[in-house]
Amino acid sequence: MPKYVAAIDQGTTSTRCMIFDHDGNVAAxxxxxxxxxxxxxxxxxxxxxxxxxxxxxVMWGALEKMDSGHMTEVSEIAAIGITNQRETTLVxxxxxxxxxxxxxxxxxxxxDVICAKLAKNGGQDRFRKKTGLPLATYFSGPKIKWxxxxxxxxxxxxxxxELLFGNIDTWIIWNLIGEHVTDxxxxxxxxxxxxxxxxxxxxxxxxxxxxxxxxxxxRSSSEVYGNVKAGRLQGIPVAGDLGDQQAALxxxxxxxxxxxxxxxxxxxxxLMNTGEKPVQSKAGLLTTLAYKIGNQKAVYALEGSIAIxxxxxxxxxxxxxxxxxxxxxxxxxxxxxxxxxxxFVPAFSGLYAPYWRYDARGAILGMTRxxxxxxxxxxxxxxxxxxxxxxxxxxxxDSGVVLTALKVDGGMVFNDLLMQFQxxxxxxxxxxPKIAETTALGAAYAAGLAVGFWRDYKxxxxxxxxxxxxxxxxxxxxxxxxYSGWKKAVTRTFDWIE
Length: 498
What we know:
Helices cover 34% and strands 23% of the residues. The protein is of the alpha+beta class.
């Protein structure tokens, strides 16, 4: 009788495999980082073969850790769920399985010229009605076009049906089970899928010059796609697939319209469940798929995407050497009373929601001789909280729902200073669940539902528990004063790139 579900969580900076029991507790975890490749300013790539190696290593590693404890049989794993960094784009040879170029990462801005050309006719919102997305460097479609335009012979090979496209979920599933599939959540991040039909849009494909034969089949987020072909997990069904932010929404059990979560990772992503109808944003948010479980109707969400959150702390560590390790940022930030009047707008790859300005670049504003590295650390943390407030304001405007509390997850939620400031600047309680790794948990839930390991949403809701809550503790005058300073700082970063 299976006792566990495994989840492969392929993120922007690392890959991990987590194994969960029926109560949603972590039975084992293994994690490995992969290289970040920066060929030119604004370009970000990953090596797909390295990612596939990491996937295999962490699957093996998690099983080894189980073995040393209380599990010996692989047959005790009911299913595997996949969750992934979204929009990161790769193209590979259908016959050899070899990528024809590195994976172009979601943060990469090289497609700005392609996006600007497409926006000449119909503006940045040209495809928004169909796809829920603005024309931006963030999404996969323009990245596919760039690969076809720039890799020698790629377009001709794609037309002959020799090449396959996938976001990272498709790449992993293809390598595990030999099927070329994606789910609705990942497909909704390509700028190529029609929100109503849940199928690729022929008109947009034609405009971008992308042959339909390259694209994976779009399936639900929770169904058996096939069984693992080889290795130690051979025969185990792969049965769940969700983009990482949708997986976190699902793992936080936000199954009712109006429920929302915010994930603090490399970037920061707030999603609100809007039910079975897509809500078109008037405030700069994305309309996206939340999930689709088997044959049930698709559920939609509004999303606010922030490009740089945890990545700013990594930048303080790796580029400036201000801290040895990311966890040291809290102590450094606590060495000062406040940010000393500075704001750090981390528009390293432009600004995402709610601005969508790829002409913006990062800036620290309000500098005086008084400022030290403690102030810079504190302003770096506060930047994430301010950006979240902007997204929440937009979400309340679009949905008409006023949030009473924010469920949070991801690596940065163990930073008390950030979480308290987040609650203060939002003026709502911030709640961390017992299991903060909700991205992997959401993928496990989707896979487990598909094979009957969990019966229904009620069982999943029963697993959710509160770990810690932060309540607002700031005067209205101070909150609004700080926030208006942030808004002013953001406008100073516009129009930097001609």
